[in-house]
Design goal:
Radius of gyration: 21 Å
Distance between the termini: 49 Å
Number of helices: 15
Oligomer: single chain
Structural class: alpha/beta
Largest sheet: 5 strands, parallel
Strand content: 15-25%
Helix content: 25-40%
């Protein structure tokens, strides 16, 4: 009986590969594995290998960025396993960038006290990592991949999750049994009007866990990336990697004045929540731009993804600053799990962005997301390969289904609602009004039920903390 992994990004693939030789069925909505959020990741992977750097320093920076809301044990597990995770990816064929001496080239991003980010292909790290993992998974005889399927329910026997309900591309329904079910479905950016995620990063796995009664955690903490390419009317926006600012690009206002001067000691490389709020404010005062002109032709060499995205929209970053806007980027909250990915429902596991073990706290440190997927994905896979095969016998089975989805018009309304109330700056008035509107939408679709839970969590946390910023209350004490 196979392990059922729902989701084909970096976390799901890491679980599937580490579970060998146990059989795995990888169930993905996408037919093309290159349509995952993991592939879009332009930032790299944080690993403490530079001179004088240590996993402890990496852990400290992670907790500072997370407003000390982190679970320190989870953070230390992440940072202590970072080198092993990067070595594993390198062994699978990920071509990490090196300097003239053949050493990994280390970049610096927001919230890091030193250069500790490894990249592959400049700003194409997610794509390079996905290419290597997908190629390895295709060669692995223990993995069977089913594409284009929608998992909308769980099979439960005597209180234990033992399978999934799925819809095939032709509309055929099937109940599939497994020795364990792993949710690796990514985040919730698709619930907002503007996001750096693909549209189907809509919280589907989180909503499935919610329907099954699994405990959820920290739903109010949503990270907004401060520098998405500003394209009015477009939902999924190209990301402008933080590594650009690490290479000297600067944020400025409509008059060319630096946005971050005097705001934070790290200026443009301050933690993302601080930069995102400043860009959000600038949007209301005439706009915000990222000036990378000093890079000249180097931007096409070291940041080819950004360069191509800008040119595709008529912007040459060598000649003029790039218009930017904050966009929903990463969910620090999710299904509550322990260090091994166990949820509160026996038989159900979660890993990656859909899960929350406390490693990111109230605000994720840059370049810890791919790392999280690999470290905790491999850890979970190693655990699951040792699970005994269930007898598959009697017992009472029941199906727990996620409610139907919102119609397109309702989903568009919800996205606007969430961006207004749950954006980088929040207030009791906007959250309360959104929750009232969401109550009516919740009767029409699961996305609104999930949004209800997020709004309620944000209302309950009255003090500002990390990415949860309430303009009508005082910050939580340090």
């Amino acid at each position: 009986m196979p392990i059922l992994v729902v989701g084909g990004g970096i976390a799901g693939l890491s679980v599937a590969l580490a579970a060998a030789p146990a059989p795995v069925r990888l169930l993905t909505r996408a037919i093309n594995p290159r349509s995952t959020a993991s592939l879009l990741a332009q930032g790299g992977i944080a690993v403490a290998v530079g001179p004088g750097d240590t996993p402890q320093a990496h852990a400290d920076d992670t907790c500072i960025a997370g407003a000390f809301h982190n679970d320190r044990a989870m953070v230390e597990l992440l940072t202590s396993q970072a080198r092993e995770a990067v070595d594993w990816l390198h062994a699978l064929g990920v071509p990490f960038d090196t300097d003239e001496a053949g050493r990994w080239r280390l970049g610096r991003e927001g919230g890091h006290r030193c250069a500790r980010i490894v990249h592959a292909g400049g700003d194409a790290t997610g794509a390079r990592v996905m290419d290597a993992l997908v190629a390895t998974a295709r060669r692995a005889t223990h993995i069977q991949r089913l594409t284009g399927v929608e998992v909308d329910g769980l099979v439960v026997r005597d209180g234990v999750v033992c399978g999934v309900c799925l819809i095939h591309p032709d509309g055929r329904r099937e109940a599939m049994h497994g020795r364990a079910v792993v949710l690796a479905t990514g985040g919730i950016g698709g619930l907002f009007a503007q996001t750096s995620n693909p549209p189907d990063a809509d919280g589907s796995g989180l909503a499935l866990a919610q329907a099954a009664g699994a405990a959820l955690r920290d739903l109010e903490f949503v990270q907004f990336h401060p520098t998405a390419l500003a394209l009015p009317g477009q939902h999924s926006l190209p990301l402008l990697t933080e590594a650009l600012r690490g290479a000297g690009a600067r944020l400025c206002d409509a008059h060319g004045r630096p946005l971050m001067a005097g705001v934070h000691p790290l200026a443009d490389l301050a933690p993302r929540d601080i930069v995102a709020r400043r860009v959000w404010q600038a949007q209301r005062e005439g706009g915000a731009w990222l000036d990378a002109r000093h890079l000249g032709q180097d931007i096409s060499v070291h940041f080819p993804t950004v360069f191509a995205a800008c040119l595709a929209h008529g912007i040459d970053p060598r000649i003029r600053p790039i218009p930017v806007v904050p966009a929903a980027h990463f969910h620090m909250g999710g299904v509550q799990v322990d260090a091994d990915g166990r949820t509160s429902r026996p038989g159900l596991y979660a890993v990656g962005e859909v899960a929350c073990n406390g490693v990111h706290g109230a605000n994720r440190l840059a370049s810890n997301s791919l790392l999280e997927g690999v470290v905790f994905g491999r850890r979970l896979g190693a655990l699951l390969r040792q699970l005994p095969v269930p007898d598959g016998g009697g017992g009472r089975h029941r199906i727990v289904r996620r409610p139907p989805a919102l119609a397109p018009a309702g989903l568009m309304q919800l996205r606007m609602l969430m961006s207004h109330a749950m954006g980088p700056v929040r207030s009791e008035a906007s959250l309360t009004a959104a929750l009232e509107t969401c109550a009516a939408l919740a009767a029409r679709g699961w996305q609104a039920r999930l949004a209800q839970a997020m709004l309620a969590a944000a209302l309950q946390r009255r003090s500002s903390l990390g990415a949860h910023y309430r303009c009508d209350t005082v910050p939580a004490p340090a």
